Amino acid sequence: SQRVQCMLGCTVSGMRSVLQTPSTALASNILILGRILSFKAEKRILSKYDAGLWMIENVPENLRYIPEAAMKFWFADSAESKTKAQPDFPLEDLQSLREYLINKIKQRTK
Predict the structure, then answer these.
(1) Around Cβ 66, how many Cβ atoms within 10 Å?
(2) Can you tell me the distance from the alpha carbon of 40 to that of 35, in angstroms, rounded to the nearest whole number?
(3) Which of 33, 36, 40, 76 is the most buried (most CB within 10 A)?
(4) What is the per-residue burial (b if ≥16 Cβ within 10 Å, else e) of 6-21?
């Protein structure tokens, strides 16, 4: 789909523009990429919540804080907490997570 292609082709400058907007787009996109990879690995469609948990267990340890923070932000209990700034991640870590997820998504299944 066009949305998946956009996420797969996301550049660092694109990430930077998402980071500068006070929306839920970044947390959502992190969880959606997790859904795509978890579907490929598990052969079933997971919710954003379950995909986030799956990512925490399956991404490199040094990047696990990203899906943890994305889940905490995305699943915040109150509408007030969703209006505050989204998590602040180092661009290098976002790029590393993006590359990891996309490389795994693009790998051929055996």
Answers:
(1) 24
(2) 9
(3) 33
(4) ebeebeeeebeebbee
Does 77 or 107 have the greater pLDDT score? 107
- Write down the number of H helices and E strands in the chain: 7, 0
Q: Which amino acid is at 3?
A: R
Residue 52 confidence (pLDDT) above 50: yes
Phi and psi at residue 77, in whole multiples of 5°?
A: -70, -40
Supply the DSSP symbol for 45.
P
Residue from 48, 91, 95 nearest 71 by CA: 48
Put residue 78 in one of left, alpha, beta given phi > 0 → left and psi -120 to 50 → alpha.
beta
CB-CB neighbours of 99 under 10 Å:
10
Residue 66 Cα distances to 1, 2, 109, angstroms: 25, 24, 26
At residue 97, the pLDDT reads 93
